[in-house]
Amino acid sequence: MAKRDYYEVLGVPRAASPEDIKKAYRQMALKHHPDRNPGSREAEDRFKEAAEAYAVLADPDKRAVYDRFGHEGLRGEGFQGFSGFDASVFEDFEDILGNFFGFSFGSFFGGRERRRGPGRQRGGDLALEIEISLEEAAAGVEKDIKLTRAETCPACGGSKRKPGTSVSSCPNCGGRGQVRYQQGFFTVARTCPRCRGTGEIVESPCETCQGKGHVREKRSLKVRIPAGVSDGLRLRLIGEGEAGDEGMPAGDLYVTMRVRRHPFFERDGNNLACEISVSFTQAALGARVEIPTLEGSEILKVPPGLQSGEVVRVKGKGLQDVGGRRKGDLFVRVQVKTPEGLTKEQKALLAKLAELRGEDVEAVDKTVIHRMKNIFQ
Ligand SMILES: [Zn+2]
Ligand SMILES: [Zn+2]
């Protein structure tokens, strides 16, 4: 198949400025990125084609050769596909190319990462869950957590070698920490398997850590949980994860909150809801009822004439926002208990009450059926 013109591949005119070419390449790379087009052979081909076109057009010397002699000119120069191109032209596209083919940008193009020290990695992140009560979530709490993590070896300081001994350069990669090989038209740099990317061979490994540079330690940490956290919220404790390689930062520790269900309160964001019941006379006459809150107790005023199932709102007795001053409310659903097991005297009093209210409890009540008719007609 004939190779397409590089300008055509990127959809730019021959006189396009370097900025236009860069912009066009970014768009192409995003559009055809294999992550966005899973399983599409065509997208992958377009993605590679665009990268190849950009590798040439972003390099002023190669662009000049290409403009004069076309694909032939570059072939004559020994330029084929990706071998021999300048990887630095892709450095601005790390965000797009970052995880392409599962290689990190640095090791994929043999660029950036090595400058941070060959093969050295930051420590891994750790994650755990912590269970707290609703009261603790409301007030905030300090919890002790226990974990086992990799920590820098105290004997060798992470250098992996016996104190006082030296290291030699890895013969497999010549101390570069990477070996290169051809994959299709990509030159891929891979971490050296012999030295695992460090470029060094440790002659006498540290005895304390068996040459690993870190040791596993049981640790107890205090975690300050702010007031107002909700179930599922994740706190990040920077640098409390696994130790990194020598000179690299430790990973982070992620702590996920699990807030236990409360026997009395339901939570909805910062608001709380609960249910209480009052007697029929309390509902009719109004009453003051002591109810529990997350902080203690509160007097709830039941207004006279309250209907069963009505909700009374208690302002500011919910939870506060994390880091905020705003507090949610407590919604109390009040159920009215109908009196049971009445004595003869009590029945007589209630009958008297009905009589005074002009109700005829002996007759068939037709008010319900009338209401229904009004609704459905
Ligand atoms: Zn050690
Ligand atoms: Zn090596």
Please outline the major beta sheet. 4 strands, mixed
**Computed structural class:** alpha+beta
Globally, the shape reads elongated
Helix and strand sequence: HHHHHHEHEEEEEEEEEEHEEEEHH
Nearest-integer average pLDDT = 85
Number of helices: 10
How much of the sequence is in beta strands?
25-35%
* Rg over C-alpha atoms, rounded to the nearest angstrom: 37 Å
Level of helix content? 25-40%
Uncertain parts: 101-116
What ligands are attached or bound here? zinc ion
What is the rounded distance between the termini? 77 Å
Side-by-side strand order of the widest sheet? 10-11-15-14
Q: Total strand count, please?
A: 15
Account of the 3D structure:
This protein is of the alpha+beta class and 377 residues long. The chain has 10 helices and 15 strands. The strands form 6 sheets. A 4-stranded mixed beta sheet has the order 10-11-15-14. It has a 3-stranded mixed beta sheet with strand order 1-9-8. Strand 12 and strand 13 form a beta hairpin. Helix 2 packs antiparallel against helix 3. The longest helix has 17 residues. About 4% of the residues have low confidence. The structure holds zinc ion (ZN) (2 copies).
